[in-house]
Structures are given as structure tokens and as C-alpha cells.
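Quick note —
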Amino acid sequence: MSEADDNRLIDAILASGVKIPPMPTVLLDVLSLAGDDDAGPREYAQAIGHDPAMTGAIFRVVGSPVMGLRVKVDSLEKAITVLGLSTTVAVVRSEAMRGALHDPALEAVMHTLWQRMTAVADLVLAAVRTARLRGVREDIAYQAGIFHDCGVAVLCRRDPAYALAFKDPAGWPDLAALDAAHHANHAVVGLMVARNWQLPQEVAETIRQHHAPRPESLAEPVRNLSALVQFACHLLAARTGADDREWREVWRPYAEAMFGRASMELPELESELLGRVG
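Predicted structure written out below.
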């Protein structure tokens, strides 16, 4: 679909009553620091440290088993140093959105959604680091992973019937079928979120295109980010036995080409990362 088509869809979504929450103050403060060349881990720690959820998110990412880090992190400033400032901003942005979309009436559903998106983001970041992918920024990759299905969370808040699909113990639903049944498009809603929350352009386009049926038509940065997201989803499917057709039928060759350029074979990377997630 063209940008004009997407814009028309977004207008229709907004007219239907879908609302995107505003960015919270702590995120605005951190984004302000990101524009200050003199700000470092100490300043970031001061801005983030008064927010327990943000602090916890930073430590969680640093300590995630899939990251495989071998350094002891005993302070927020050190955790930010290990992650890097750009990735720290990405983590804060994701935790801010998680808080902004919180809905007590959908506690279990939102937990399921964020648990999955967090797992995807962790695996994407671990894949970039393990394969030493050149030309892929860690913070951009992390945001592509953590926000790839953010439109799902918005739609769950808008439509309780849509949210019911995520209470099924059988596992992650077929999102294309779910969207069709509810006359929705989670990728377009995600694009709307990305624009409102000022996500990087490559991330916004990846959110919109990570289910593209013909990846060869995408710009290479977006194709690579989408392949990373789909690779992470494939790893989760391999662990749980979930449906993996999209990976097999569409995305696998593009991931093989991407990791091959980094001189790492896909089965080797799969084995290493699956060993970390158990």
C-alpha cells in the first residue's frame, strides 16, 4: 500500500475512536537529554532513577539471559553505560509506552502482549550483538522488536472482543485473521503510534511492513529490521511449537542473506540463542 493509502487508513482509525496516549514526562526528559551532547550516563541515571519502572526495565535488559553479558552491574549508571545511551533511550521509550497503555481491566492480556514483545526485543538485540551485524544500530533494532506489535495493544484497549483472542491458552493468535475478523490493521495502528511517539523512521516503517508479503520491495534497512523481528518470532515459535509459516514461506531467505553477510550461518545463530532462552 502507498503512503497515501496508509494516511487514509489512519484517518479512518482515528475517526473510529482509537486514541494514542501522550508521552509521559520522564520520557520527554530523557529525549531532551538525548539532544544534549554533554549529557552522559550520570545525567541519564538522574533522570531515570526516580522512576522504579524505568529503572527496573534498564536492569532487566542488562541482566537478560539472552544478552549473555558477563559483567556485574551494580548501579543504574553502570547499567546505562553497558547498554549505551541510545539503547537506554529505546528501553525508556518502551517502558513509557507500556505504562501509558496499561489498563487494569486488561491486566492479563497486556501482560501477555508485553511479555512477547519484550522477548522479541531481547532476541533481536542479542542477534545483532551475537552476529555482529554491521549497519544495524542496536537501539533501532531493539525498538523495532519492542514496538513491532504495539498496534495490537492499542486495538485491545479499543475493542474488548479483539482482546479476547489473547486469552486463548492455545497461544499467540493469527494476527492477519484477527485483523480481518475485526476490520482492523494492527500494523497501520502501530504506524500511527510510531508517528505520535516520534519513533525513528526506520522503526516506524518496520512496524508497518514486518508482515510484508514481498520483502524484496522494501528498502534494505527496513527489510533487515523486519527480518530480525521475524527471526525472533521464529525462535519463540520454535520454543513453543507455534505456527511458523510466515517465517518459512516469506522471511527465512532474507534472514539467511543478512546473517550470511555477517559471516554467521543461521542454524548456528539459532542454536546459540535458543540455548539462552531455554
